[in-house]
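Researcher: Next sequence.
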Amino acid sequence: QVQLVESGGGLVQAGGSLRLSCAASGSGFTIKTMGWYRQGTGMQRELVATIQTGESTLYADSVKDRFTISRENAGTVYLQMNSLKPEDTAVYYCNADVQRAGYTFRYWGQGTQVTVSS
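Model: Next structure:
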């Protein structure tokens, strides 16, 4: 079993910054891609950014040039969020695509609230 634990959410004023962290625990698997998604109230969950094992990254257009995703090792991922806007307010979820015994599984963290005040 893989567990993802997020931290770093909170309340910040518009224009401020936050850094989210996500650490994976468990054994017997290989993490291929890690990413961040978010879900605002009454909204569908949407992709924010992903990073592959080879450090290739993908960003939603709405966060390009403001957010940066990075990995410290195979199982830890960060999301540096700068120039935050009220529309960035959402629950942010970490996810990981994991390979085990030839199959790929997707795991999610419990989510961390980010609130940006105007």
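Model: The longest strand covers residues 90-100. Residues 14 and 85 are 5 Å apart (CA to CA).
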